[in-house]
Amino acid sequence: MRAKKTAPPEIPPDPFHERTPPASRVRMQLLGGSFEFECGSPELRRLVDWAYAGLPSHKLAAVAPRLRVRLALAPRARPRSRIAPPRVETLSGAGLLCGTTSDSDFAVLSPEQRSALIVVSQEMLRFDYYARYELIEFAVFTLAARSQGLIPLHGACVGAAGRGILLIGDSGAGKSTASLHCLLRGMDFLTEDSVFVAPDSALATGVANFVHIRCDSLDSVPASSAALIRRSPVIRRRSGVEKFEVDLRRPEFRLAPAPLSIAAVVFISPQPARRGGLLTQLRGREAVARLQKDQPFAVSQLGWKTFKKRLGLIPAFELRRGRHPAEAADALQGLLAEGKLPEL
Q: HSE on the CB side for 217, CA within 13 Å?
């Protein structure tokens, strides 16, 4: 007599896979925080390494907050049914629980627990640029800012000898091009797009992994640098704009080894320079008003009032376009020259 097959339990003993260890773990010091990435597959580990491995370790305090990010692959797709939607599967990581389908891509964060769970579908793995920036970077940046009370700013930052210049401007104003020319002449590169500032000390940190350059910007750089950039992969933004993604973790580039103390704020304008030169100094109140208008999300943060007071002590300028983009780098490098800016 045949034994009857035992039906699988409706609720398995480990429904959220909480006792399943990640395929790999890696610790990295980023944005002042000590991050532990728990990666559920080799593909996800490669995404993390491609984004953050080999960057300088930035510390903003004596004790860095410990932050956890778990990356998990969405469940494999099951055969489609004509009469029912995709099955919801359960996952967990970094102290968080979730239900997801095979088509899901999302990041869920708990600032209080200093943890995040990122779920990546097989389809999203084909688009590593979007997985890095829209999922992993979102989680890393948000946890770092919330755990340390940092002011997040949309801007670039370059510097020298521990002092930095915060570059603010609309998309297309020339932040990346100006930053690239500063980089090519040996200045410290902090970030091209997202700057995080400690409101009380005005110390700025960022992720200096890549710079994104439009093809039409290559005419202004030396031939050897243009050849290197052209060998870089091309990414396509959601807007449809295509750019070279230049990996800066190379010996010829100098990345800021530590957070930079903001010594000046420069608003980049697409308008042509006046006869008096590219740089025009702004009054303190005007600079604060411009920054508040340009950075509404930063204004909503708890540390904004403290940062606003600090900002009033920092010299601010408007930088207009010259005949050649290298002139912008000349002006910025000149600002950091000895005696040009006050010590704060």
A: 23
